[in-house]
Amino acid sequence: MKVAVLDITGKDTGRKVELSKDVFGIEPNDHAIYLDVKQYLANQRQGTHKSKERAEIAGSTRKIKKQKGTGTARAGSIKSGVFRGGGRMFGPRPRDYSFKLNKNLKRLARKSALSIQASDKNVIVVEDFNFETPKTKNFLDVLKALELETKKSLFVLGSENANVYLSSRNLKKSKVIKASELYTYGVLNTNKLIITESSLEDINTNLSK
C-alpha cells in the first residue's frame, strides 16, 4: 500500500512511501488486541483502594448483648460488619493489577491495530519536522493544516523531539510519542495516526522481527 508524503502545511510533496504488508496489511487478531488493551488499562490502575475491616475499627470488644433470649441473632462485637459503623466484610485491599504478556503477542497486537487504521485510511505520513522553540501555536498550525484541530490525533516521531513534544503537551486531543513507544491502545484510540518518514522505518524494523 502506497501513501503520499505530506509536509507540515498539508501539501503533497510528490513523494510516496510503501506501507509494509507485514506491519500495516495483516489480518487483525482481535484477541491479541483485547489482551494488550486490557493489560494497558490494568497497568493504569493505582490499586490503592482500601476499606477498614472489623480488626481495624476502633471500638469495644465486649459482648453487646446476652447470647440467648433476645429474640434476635446473637452478636459478639459492635465492630461486626452487620452493624452501622462496623468494619466492611471482604472489603478491597491494595493490590497490583498489572500482568505480563508475551512479546510476540504484543507485537501482533500492535501490527493488528496499525492494519486496522491503515485499512480505514486513517494513517497519514508526513516528512520529518521540528520547531525552533516549543510553542503550542506552532503545533496548532500543523493540526489546522492537516485538518485535525477537532479530531484525536497521535503523532509518531522517529526520535525524541523535545520542542514538538512540549508544543503538544497542552492539547488534550493530540499526543506525541516516539516509534519505540508505540502502543496498541493509543493507535486505536485516535481518529488519525500521523507518522513521520523516519519513524516509519523504525516501526517496520521493530515490528518485522
Q: Give me the count of strands.
A: 6
Overall pLDDT level: 92
Please state the CA-atom Rg, rounded to the nearest Å: 27 Å
Instruction: State the end-to-end CA separation.
Output: 20 Å
Q: What is the CATH topology assignment of the largest domain?
A: Ribosomal Protein L4, Chain: A
Number of domains: 2
Strand order of the largest sheet: 2-1-3-6-4-5
In short:
The protein is of the alpha/beta class and 209 residues long.
Could you characterize what this model shows?
The protein has 209 residues and is an alpha/beta fold. It has two domains: 2-46 and 97-207, Ribosomal protein L4/L1 (Ribosomal Protein L4, Chain: A); 51-91, no CATH class. 33% of the residues lie in helices and 15% in strands. The chain has seven helices and six strands, in the order E-E-H-H-H-E-H-E-H-E-H-E-H. It has helices at residues 21-24, 30-44, 103-119, 136-145, 162-168, 184-188, 197-207, and strands at residues 2-6, 12-18, 123-126, 153-157, 174-178, 192-196. The chain has a six-stranded mixed sheet with strand order 2-1-3-6-4-5. It is elongated. The mean pLDDT is 92.
